[in-house]
Amino acid sequence: MTGDPEPISAEARKALEQELSDLHEERRTVAATLKDSDEVGDRADQADEIQRADQLHRLDERIERAEDRLRQADIGGPVPTDKVGVGTTVTVRFADGTTDTLHIGEIADARDPKLVTSDSPLGRALLGRTPGDTVSYEAPNGETTAVVVSLGTPGDQG
């Protein structure tokens, strides 16, 4: 990320809101299984309670991160159209001469092979760039470059 509040696409917002809803439901379920400390029996019961309390703590942390990200997105405003940001579709030409159109997102999705997460080496290198900019990033085979050819919106992805 660039350090400034980053906007997110409508699709990413919807996915994050759904995740947040699921997390709240899971938290309610786990919290309902916690017993009053006076009711805890043998050591196995105590270990089980500790494990559920730890799970509750992890859920609370993830809920807090999701809520913070949604607040940041509200401050960040709409997806930028003049530079690469989260939610931008960008066409890049790689060092080997191939050109590809990618979508910069936050949430990895195995069903979307064109998605590049904003925290990946290529995603970080592209954030804030404009057409004509050359970026360097660490690839599996070493450092390489790419040129930003053009920007679009998620609907332009095709």
Automatic annotation (TrEMBL):
Residue ranges occupied by any Transcription elongation factor GreA/GreB N-terminal domain in the UniProt entry: 7-75
A GO biological process held by the record: regulation of DNA-templated transcription elongation
SUPFAM superfamilies: FKBP-like (SSF54534), GreA transcript cleavage protein, N-terminal domain (SSF46557)
Residue ranges of domain Transcription elongation factor GreA/GreB C-terminal in the record: 80-150
Keyword annotations: Kinase, Transcription, Transcription regulation, Transferase
Region of interest (Disordered), residue spans: 31-53, 119-139
A GO molecular-function annotation: kinase activity
NCBIfam families per the UniProt record, alphabetical: PRK05892.1
Official protein name in the record: Nucleoside diphosphate kinase regulator
Provenance organism: Streptomyces griseoluteus
Lineage: Bacteria, Bacillati, Actinomycetota, Actinomycetes, Kitasatosporales
